[in-house]
Design a protein that fits this description.
The chain is an alpha+beta fold. Helices cover 14% and strands 28% of the residues.
Amino acid sequence: MKWIWAVLVLVVVAGGVAVLWPESSVPVAPATPAPISASAKQPTPGVANVAPATPAATKPSPLTTTTTTATPATTTATPATSAPTTVAAKPAKASPREPVLKEVPPGGLTLGLDRKIPHATVTPGSIMKQPDGSLLADGKYKIEGDGSREKPYRIGWDCLASANKTYIPRLKEDLMPQRVALLDGAWVRIDGYFALPLMLQESSEILVMLNQWDGCCIGVPPTPYDAIEVKLVEPVKPNRRHAFNFGTVLGRLRVDPMLVENWLVGLYRLEEATLTQSGL
């Protein structure tokens, strides 16, 4: 039995030596793996499949390449299309003015050329006497009567307003046509709309105009060329507030420009006047 136990001990010792003894006593260097591209690597189970980051310096992205090769905007920019500063703007064409006569034409009257009108220079015109006794001024303005109280000049607004063609003080144009100057100091009769002061029960001063105006905010406000400041002999009472009134005034006309810093604010005044109202 002793040899059996001796054999068993040898077997156990041999087994332990076989398990614990190294496979080889000669050291072996580990093999260097061949380089594998990022695209050829296979995913490892249990490990996140993350591609290794590529340094920007060694492999620029396509977007970076495109940006670095683009042409700067300043080299291809189109110059601005604004107008050259050296070209001056053309001045607006002035409205045509009627020709100014230097002397009275043959057969013409000299009425009004001796008038002294403030801030104005009277210029000659064509004043012709017609077979019926009326006057024809500059070929288109008819004036009836002789300028007396018994036979006052019957005038129209077109004749008075025509002064704006040559008399514009703010533009340094001071020529007063003869057809207007001859009315200065004469008795005249004219029809028109009139306005009274709004806050008075009656007034001896009214404004006679070419266009409808209530004296406040309804209608067309007048200009110095188509309005006459009237001083009545007897005061008049207004019919209704903000109403259009129409009538005929008779009085002695004064051509008297009123200027405020070369701006014309008034031109015609009528003195010793009477008013005849008409229904509309």
